[in-house]
């Protein structure tokens, strides 16, 4: 039997990720800060690429607007409120005097993404022009009403102590564990038992409970929080039309070095890629904000249903391109700094309002309720239905959980909880039960 050689012709398609395509994708996904770092790296490798950062523009972060008087709070179009807007809503429920409100704003400004206070109380007191006693008194009130529990803690021990107290588990063995977290981290249970005089099994039980607590209660707000850095885009209303432009103070200026030398073609190619990225970003952002202009006018409660596929079809782009462009991109608006991705929201039901708008309305209903008589999920569903957004009770419960809001019975217990606390007096916040 003889073997025969046979020649055949086949046609196949294959996408090759070239260096240029890879760079283009990377630029599309980069925010202003990431793009600046990437360009600095490229300029360090290619002397023909010149970078110059423009002088600071007149753009001022509207973060200070987060501390506006009551009724003028900025809004975010995120699925959940940012940490600062959440904390300011809490401040509003305390019905503070103007002086107390200024002190509370200084405490909110001191919050870190973890939900803890960063500066010591003495520094916050100096900033607010208040006494340490005033700061400690108002801090106790904020900690007593904060949700999730543990916000405004000054360190890990205080954060866990607040949660143990809220759960009704702050008994003497738990206090002994919280006072010796360094030994807990090293697993020295027998030493904790010996030093505290409690049984080792009791100590193990408290440590097990401790592991259910959240050491960083503010971290859940981080993915959707308004960024503190300069945004990539600035949106303004000019002659009745919303216009989006690049925030040039956040981007370096590119140029090719004069003269001759290797690398000039690569520098020009990179500049073209950046210009293409900027043009795509502007067109996508303009289309998004043109569709969501009611939210720019009235706040996130006026968000309209919108998908990336719809924006991509309107611009003649692929949906993945829109997804890459909006990833991590922030836009500064008169209502605060918003994530572009957060403006995409589907309807809660076919033909109904946007789910993001309903969550915003739900958060406002809870923020404005009587703390002594909080609204149940059924009552919240009825209130939303009166506003033209009928929802099932289970949907309201789901949205409430997404917003990090406890059920009515827990909100009632929190409102009834006494606010007096005994502080140890040192700025690190070690407290006694």
Automatic annotation (TrEMBL):
Residue span, RNA polymerase sigma factor 54 DNA-binding domain: 265-412
Any one Pfam family match given in the protein's UniProt record, by short name: Sigma54_CBD
Stretches for region Disordered: 410-433
Biased composition (Basic and acidic residues): 424-433
Domain spans labelled RNA polymerase sigma factor 54 core-binding: 77-256
Superkingdom classification of source: Bacteria
Transferase keyword on record: yes
UniProt keyword annotation of Kinase present: no
Keywords: DNA-binding, DNA-directed RNA polymerase, Nucleotidyltransferase, Sigma factor, Transcription, Transcription regulation, Transferase
Similarity comment text for this entry: Belongs to the sigma-54 factor family.
Name of the protein in its database record: RNA polymerase sigma-54 factor
Naturally occurring in which organism (per UniProt): Tabrizicola soli
């Amino acid at each position: 039997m003889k073997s025969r050689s046979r020649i055949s012709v086949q046609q196949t398609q294959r996408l090759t990720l070239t260096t240029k395509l890879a760079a283009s994708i990377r630029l599309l996904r980069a925010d202003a800060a990431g793009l600046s770092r990437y360009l600095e790296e490229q300029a360090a490798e290619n002397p023909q690429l010149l970078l110059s950062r423009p002088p600071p523009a007149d753009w001022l972060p509207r973060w200070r607007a987060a501390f506006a008087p009551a009724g003028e709070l900025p809004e975010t179009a995120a699925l959940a409120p940012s940490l600062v807007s959440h904390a300011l809503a809490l401040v509003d429920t305390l019905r503070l005097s103007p002086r107390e409100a200024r002190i509370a704003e200084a405490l909110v400004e001191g919050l870190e993404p973890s939900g803890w206070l960063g500066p010591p109380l003495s520094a916050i007191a100096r900033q607010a022009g208040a006494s340490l006693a005033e700061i400690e008194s108002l801090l106790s009130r904020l900690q007593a009403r904060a949700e999730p529990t543990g916000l405004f803690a000054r360190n890990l021990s205080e954060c866990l102590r607040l949660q143990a107290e809220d759960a009704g588990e702050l008994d003497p063995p738990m206090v002994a564990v919280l006072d010796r977290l360094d030994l807990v981290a090293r697993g020295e249970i027998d030493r904790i038992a010996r030093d505290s005089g409690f049984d080792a099994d009791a100590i193990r039980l408290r440590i097990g409970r401790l592991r259910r607590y959240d050491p960083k209660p503010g971290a859940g707000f981080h993915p959707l929080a308004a960024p503190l850095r300069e945004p990539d885009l600035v949106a303004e209303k000019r002659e009745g039309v919303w216009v989006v432009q690049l925030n040039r103070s956040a981007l370096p200026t590119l140029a090719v070095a004069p003269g001759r030398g290797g690398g000039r073609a690569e520098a020009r190619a990179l500049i073209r890629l950046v210009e293409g990225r900027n043009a795509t970003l502007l067109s996508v952002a303009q289309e998004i904000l043109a569709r969501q202009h009611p939210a720019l006018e009235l706040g996130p409660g006026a968000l309209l249903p919108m998908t990336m596929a719809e924006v991509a079809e309107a611009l003649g782009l692929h949906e993945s391109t829109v997804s890459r462009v909006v990833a991590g991109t922030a836009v500064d608006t008169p209502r605060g700094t918003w994530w572009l991705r957060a403006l995409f929201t589907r309807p809660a039901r076919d033909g109904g309002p946007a789910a993001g708008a309903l969550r915003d309305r739900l958060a406002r209903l809870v923020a404005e309720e009587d703390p002594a008589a909080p609204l149940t999920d059924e009552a919240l569903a009825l209130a939303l239905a009166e506003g033209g957004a009928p929802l099932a009770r289970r949907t309201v419960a789901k949205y409430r959980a997404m917003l990090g809001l406890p059920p009515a019975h827990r909100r009632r217990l929190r409102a009834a909880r006494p606010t007096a606390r005994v502080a140890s007096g040192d700025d690190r916040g070690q407290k006694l039960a």
